[in-house]
Amino acid sequence: MADDSGEVQEIAPEAAVLDVEATRAATGRQLRARAYEHDSPTSAAPGIYDIPVILEKSLAGASKLALATEEANKYLCASGGALVSSYYETQTAAISHAVSSEPRSTDRCGDMAHIGETLSRFTAKRMQERLDQTLHIPPLPEAARRIVALQADPNYDLADLVQIIETDPSIASRLMGWANSALYNPDPKAKSLEDAVMRVLGFDTVMSMALGMALGQTLRLPT
């Protein structure tokens, strides 16, 4: 992988998907995949390219690894600890996600299916991480909390709802405005909140509108 500062070599299990975002977070660099036009495979031996090495953390404790070399079907055996050397710049980090630990057919016909399953799990995991990092839901306002509790009460009545709405003058005034608007055109006009709920708007409509207005005062998208 590379950025404007140069290249790095990443070493990860063969049956794994590299996590680019994890690599960037671990290095503090905006690394991206570097395309190679080689007839022979690239080597997993650290230090061979004389560039910094990022080693998958799970490999560092392995007792025996088979490292791919630039010669096809030739491997270099080493322990995970031997890959962490002072002769070249090495960093260990969790930079990959295993594709599957289950035995697979050697014809590789199912490789794309396995990779697809891993990407699906990885995408869901990444979305959850982003939500955890960025989404903050503030506590519900008192009126909204009481309306939700009232909805769950099978023995609620009109007086309970009116009492909750009256504690929030902004909601009460907006509901009265809706009840006496040209949309509903009541005759005669609603004189009280109880009249607006019972005769014009209806219990379910008022509950939904009141809850929406109560939540709207708190849940706002960032600019």
Description:
A three-stranded parallel beta sheet has the order 3-5-8, covered by helices on one side. A two-stranded antiparallel ribbon has the order 1-2. A two-stranded antiparallel sheet has the order 4-9. 19% of the residues are buried. With 223 residues, the protein is α/β, with parallel strands linked by helices. The protein has two domains: 2-100, Alpha-Beta Complex (YbaK protein), CATH 3.90.960.10; 142-216, no CATH class. Helices cover 38% and strands 13% of the residues. α3 packs antiparallel against α4 and α3 (142-151) runs antiparallel to α7 (203-216). The protein has helices at 20-27, 111-134, 142-151, 158-166, 169-179, 193-201, 203-216, and strands at 2-3, 6-7, 9-11, 16-18, 53-56, 65-68, 75-78, 90-93, 96-98. The longest helix has 24 residues, at 111-134. The mean pLDDT is 79.
Features:
single chain, 223 residues, alpha/beta, YbaK protein, 2 domains, three-stranded parallel beta sheet, two-stranded antiparallel ribbon, 7 helices, 38% helix, rod-shaped
Can you list the strand order of the major beta sheet? 3-5-8
Distance between the termini: 35 Å
pLDDT below 50 for ≥5 consecutive residues: which ranges? Answer: none
What's the structural domain tally?
A: 2
